[in-house]
Structure formats: structure tokens, C-alpha cells
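Hi there,

I know you've been waiting on this one. I reran it after we fixed the sequence typo, so this is the corrected version. Both the input and the resulting structure follow.
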Amino acid sequence: MLFTRAARPVRLGLVGMAFMGVLIGASATPADSQEREKLRVTVVSSRPGTVSGDDALIRVEVPASIAAGQVRVEADGRDVTPSFRPSGDHALMGVVKGLSRGANRLTARAGGVDSGQLTLKNHPITGPMFSGPHEQPFICDTAAFKTVTGDTLGQPLDEDCSVGTRVDYMYRTTAGTFVPLPDENARPADLATATTSTGEKVPYIVRVETGTINRGIYEMAMLYDPGAGAPDPLVRGPGWNGRLVYGFGGGCDGGWYVQGRNTVGIMNDTYLSKGYAVASSSLNVFGNNCNDVLAAETMSMVKEHFVETYGVPAFTIGNGCSGGSYQTHQIADNYPGLLDGILSGCSFPDVGFGTIQTLSDARLLNHYFKDVAPNVFTEEQQRAVSGFGKWESIGSLARAGGRIDPTVFCPVQLPAAQRYDPAANPDGARCDVYSHTVNVYGEVPETGKARRPLDNTGIQYGLEALNKGTIDMDRFIDLNRRIGGLDDDARPAAKRTAADLKAVRLAYRTGRLLNGGGGLADIPIIDYRDYTDDAATGDMHMRFHSFSTRARLDKANGTHANQVMLTRSDGHGFTLAGMLSDMDHWLTGIKGDSSDDAPIEKIVRHQPQGLTDACWTRGTGAKKIAEPQVEGIDNTQCNTLYPVWTSPRMVAGADVANDIIKCRKRPVTRSDYQVPVSDGQFEDLKAIFRDGVCDWSIPGAGQQGLAGTWLSFDQE
């Protein structure tokens, strides 16, 4: 699938301004003449090429020698000057409405100076913008979506699941609950008072806006007095501290073909009581949409609308756990400027590889241990082959691996008649990660199915368990002879799974496998985790995934100094309020740093004192242990409390970065094995791995860097 590359955003300061579009200016001034003064036009609500909804917040910088009243602004020849008013020193700002679909040329003119020009590309509010053609079928959920007042949004107005925008006011009671404000002109007797992070005391009344953007349902909330009138993007509303928290929700199973019945939730006292604005969309919940490109596009459009309505935030903090962490990482890396700092909880680096490779291996191991070779391996031997901390995690992760099976995790909203069935409905909707990302990977011409960057050729499953003496050579040989692979419907197959090399290359070039060297390198990260590796029923949110992200940062940038890692158990230790305060101080320091130093230097310089890698002891009264977080089982205090277990591929020799999709091969050698190998066994191994075994010491097949950021998969 072809994609187009946009240039990286011009760095207008590390925080809060990287989102700003830049001037397409007047012709160059001859070198032997005095440079003429000129107007400068920028879009502050989005990038110039990613405008949506027929409007944009525009800034015109005016030379000091020119009176603001002399400036005339046009949009494709249409006078839009009345939309602007003075803003700051020598500048005009305003929301230009009525933009045409496609290219729009803005021109600012004034006598005695060169004009300023800027071309915008406007997209429909229903999308798409850069994620590629809309997925079909698509089920509307407006009639099931519950607003903050308990009402539904009613039936959709069109095939894009649109509804009219509504505004509700909620208030916080002195008893600590949110309830609808009964009268905008009266103040309830039990109305609480909020004290914001800037020290301002305001009535705890929250303005909540709900509507549809990019076929998703969005919600925005902030402290706002209804008596102040309509919001103004040039005047900060009462109670807003100037910061935006964007919420990302988890999941993945069933995350396709639906609008979604929930956002991550915006009525969060931790945020709102301190004056933060909060926003989220149903398509930023991975249980509704397990596609990071569509999630990035949705966040871009929702944030654009926020800026046009309420004004430019000083900075935007992303927060999400599990499927939300995928989004914080990949949006920050691949679409820099949307997020200025992230809180990434119960994290994975990405869905397609950090997660899927481990789930697919667990699926294969579970099938082998239960159906192919039952009662051959003890539970402890099975656990050792998997690398997981609990034997139960093999089955748990195998079930979660259904997200690559087109028949397992179809959303309940999708009618059975529209679902894929290999026999009864081969053209039906395929409910899997790869089909949901077909705009990136493209289709296999012979089958029409999405290309898959999934591979297990050459992997020596259980190698570390063999070398430690946990399993013997005969079991190792049988495991690798008969583990097989997964066919294109994720059913067990005798042959190992071979990846589509075009999909592999695209995964690296487009950032579907998190690189870490895009925008993520330039923002602060707090990686926080409630430890679940020892969950009784098994759990996929394993601690090694945090180290995968760290390793990728190191590989891409030579440092992970922008990532702080925190671990606790059962909610005892760090708090959301504490992390939010730390991130706020961190970003405030970075924003106030006017030096020309590299972003990473500013990040290190302004890291709050006391915010360092740490874990907390278990149970109530948990105590903080501040020490560097490293891989291992019992090599540090934190790893004794919270062992960093591994994965099937790490047991097979891969490193924690987990960034090799398809390994390059080398001949099998006796030196791989620290146990005796008979001549017959060695012949068996050569026959099993006739094309070679994985050489994890070199880059994988097709492994390469990012093609760029702000990539578009639009097929126009």
C-alpha cells in the first residue's frame, strides 16, 4: 500500500507549538537589497495539510511598523478580515470558517510590506484525513452511547454516524459526586469549589461537549462558568489552567467496524479539580478501534476542534493503559506535536509486534502442549519454554491471540450475516488486527486478504530451557518439529508462518512497529505499571514490555533518559495525581527553557527532583525504592519484588527490544546447545531448520528506520 510522507514539523519550541503550521512565504529578497518587512501567516489549530471541519484557527504576525487595522486577510479571494482581532504583540488571530474541501489559500496583505500566504488542505469532519479509506461495514452506536447526564445521543443523522453537538453542565457536589447542573443561572447549595493547579478558586462546574468527529464520538470537559458565555479561543476560560489531558482507552479484542459506545471517560476529578481540560473519543479506545493510525487521526481532529473552540493549550498530556499505551507511544512517535508528554500505563510498545508476536507464540505453544503433545511436558517445563512467570499465562495469552483470528473477536454490534466465515461467507468482515490495518499493509492479490507481518520461521522455541536443563533434547526437537505455524485465518498449520516481506518493510517504515526515534525521542515519558506477571489466572500485561520500549529508545537515540519507569502492586505506591503533577512540572520547565539545546538536554535538565526509576514494596504502607530499573529476576531489590520474566522469543534468543519481525537465518550449529547432542539429534535439527535458525545478533529481514513522520495513507 502506497503512503505519502509529510515533512517533520518545524520546531517552534519543544512544547505546545510543534503543532503549528508554517508560512508559505513571499519570494526571496535579492541579496544586495534591504530585506522588506512581511506578514507571516500560520495555522495554530493543526498542521496546514491536516485541517478538518471547514475551519481553522489562524494567526497573522504583523510587523511593528504596520497597524493591525491595515491588514486584510483573504481565503481564496474571499474577505475574512472580520474573523480576526488583535492577539498579543503585533498579531491577529481568528477562526476562519467556510473553507472549501481540499486546498485553500490564505493571503494577508497590508501596504508597505510583503504579503503572507499559507495553503491549507481541508478535510471533511467525518474524515478520513490521513488514515486511508473508511472501513466498511461500520456500525453506528450513537443510540447506545450514554452521555454524562445518562441520555443517549439518539439515532445518527447520516451514514457516517454523525449527531448534532450538545453541551451539558455538570457540577461536583460537596459530597464528592458529579450531577447535572439543574439551572445554569443558579448555584446549588451543595456546589463544591475547585482549586486549580494555578491556585485559582472557582465553582466546580464542568462544561461537557459531546459530538462526532471522524465517525467517532468525542467528549470534552473543563471547568467553566456558564455565566461566562460561549467559549472564546482567544480568551482562556475561567478555571482552565491552560493544559489538556487526552485520554486513551484499552482493549483490542473486537476493536473494528464499530463507532464505539464509550470514550475513556472525561469526568475525572483528579484532572478537572486542578483545572485541566479533558478530551477523548470512542475511536481512541482500542476496544472500539485497534488501529493506531486511525487513533492518531481521530486525536488530531478532536484536538484541532478543541483548539478552535477553547484555545491553544500550553501543552497536551496523553494518558492511557494497555491499549491506551499503544496509542500514547505510537501517536507521539509517528505524529509528533499532538502530545507533549505521556503517562503510559500497563504498557506495551505497540499492538502489532510488542503484543501480537508474544500472543501468537503463546497460541502455538498452547496448541502444541494441549493438542499435539499432551502430557509430554510438565507445567513447569511449559512455563520455562514460554518464559512467562506463570504457567497460566500460556492459556490466557493464547486466548488473547484471537485478535489475529478473523472469526473470534467480532464486536457484538456486527450482525452475524456480515461476519467472515471461511465457508459460509468468505467475503464477510474479517475481525482481526491485520484486516483492520489493511490501508497500511495492503492486500495479497491472490486472496484479497490483508498482508501479514507475522513470522516464526527459524525460531528455536525453548532454547534457554534446554540449555538450563529444564527440558531435554528430545523434547526440544519434538517441540520445534511439530509446533508449526498459523495459516492466514490463524488456524494451526504444520508449516511455520512466513511473513509477507512487503508488510514487514512497511511495518518498520511506517512506525507500526514502534521505532522510538520519531517524536517519542523528544518528549518526557512516565511508564507506570501495576505488576500482574504473577496473576493467578495469567496476564498479558507483562513487565518486560516496558523494557522493550526502553530498548527501542536506546537503539534509536542512544539513550532512554526521557523515560521514567515506576512499578507497584495492587495500587499501593505512585498515584495519578502525583504523576500528573510531576509531568506538569516537567513540561512547564521544558517550555520555559529558551535555550537552543537539544530537546533531550532540556528533558534531562528539567526532570523533577524525586521523579526517578522506582518501585514500591507490596501491600499497604508501601515504601518507595528508588533504583534504576533493569531486566532480571532477583538481581535488584525491585526485581526481587517484581521479577522481569520474558517471552517465548526471548527464551529462543531474541533480545528484549522485541523488534525483529522476521529473523535472518544462519546454519544450525552445535555451539547453540550447552547440552550433549548426538549425531542423530543433530541431523534431526538440521532437517527441522533446513533454512537455518534465527541469528538474533543481526537486524531482521527488512528491518529499517522510519520513512518519516506524519505519513498519510490517503489514496487520493
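Quick highlight: The CA atoms of residues 1 and 579 lie 40 Å apart.

Best,
R. S.
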